[in-house]
């Protein structure tokens, strides 16, 4: 009985010690748990406030893209939430240094695996920030040409002149020269008109100048120009240059090219066809060079 009583007493003491230790842990971790809940709630609220503040703050910059506003505000929010999560784990005695190192390693691995995608994201941010082109503008990069439909973080959507849908990665658009045909408010129209060698060049120039000056789409400054560009095999080529609003470029080029042809003909001038001079020498007839040698 004495041995049983001793064992019972030992079990009671062990139970009391366990209860005491559990109560101490409960008190300790209860404060940590309450602190973690407070941190989570406060972090969630603050992250939402930061997201809205950054979104609204970027909106004060004139022309700042809507996609970038959402992107930067979301990045700030989730970065803050990650920081709150690491802080909460530290409340329970977790070594956050190893967690941060693990997150860094995971981030590096993801970055290497998604290297091409990250390049497109970086290029998309630069395109949205610097705006070499906007929605509705017509561009040509040499590899792709079309009207911009949408600029995303990963790729840009275009529509070609014949209505074909094109999706181009942003990295290709950022790393190549871009011709933007819609950005400037004015563009120069240029075309060539050929007249016969027998025609009056001054009359042709005056006819074309009068025609261009009468069109309201042609700008007076810079002044239009009509000049002899080259002496071709069958014609004297006159180059016609004038400036117009970008929105009128295509229509004015087509219509004034046609009108110039009609005006040249109405003035009695000629737009010649390619010509070749053929001389027929009957068989047995002495060539001029041969006749000169015989006389000498």
From TrEMBL:
Membrane topology: Multi-pass membrane protein
GO cellular component, one term: plasma membrane
Record keywords: Cell inner membrane, Cell membrane, Ion channel, Ion transport, Membrane, Transmembrane, Transmembrane helix, Transport
Stored InterPro entries: LSM_dom_sf (IPR010920), MS_channel_1st (IPR049142), MS_channel_C (IPR049278), MscS_archaea/bacteria_type (IPR045275), MscS_beta-dom_sf (IPR023408), MscS_channel_2nd (IPR006685), MscS_channel_C_sf (IPR011066), MscS_channel_TM-2 (IPR011014)
Major localisation: membrane
Protein name, per record: Small-conductance mechanosensitive channel
Function statement: Mechanosensitive channel that participates in the regulation of osmotic pressure changes within the cell, opening in response to stretch forces in the membrane lipid bilayer, without the need for other proteins. Contributes to normal resistance to hypoosmotic shock. Forms an ion channel of 1.0 nanosiemens conductance with a slight preference for anions.
Family: Belongs to the MscS (TC 1.A.23) family.
Annotated ranges, domain Mechanosensitive ion channel MscS C-terminal: 189-269
Assembly and interaction partners: Homoheptamer.
PANTHER family on file: SMALL-CONDUCTANCE MECHANOSENSITIVE CHANNEL
Record-annotated Mechanosensitive ion channel MscS domain positions: 117-183
Gene Ontology molecular function, alphabetical: mechanosensitive monoatomic ion channel activity
Residue intervals passing through the bilayer: 29-50, 71-93, 99-130
Gene3D superfamilies xref list: 1.10.287.1260, 2.30.30.60, 3.30.70.100
Pfam families per the UniProt record, alphabetical: MS_channel_1st, MS_channel_2nd, MS_channel_3rd
Domain Mechanosensitive ion channel transmembrane helices 2/3: 74-115
Annotated compartments: Cell inner membrane; Cell membrane
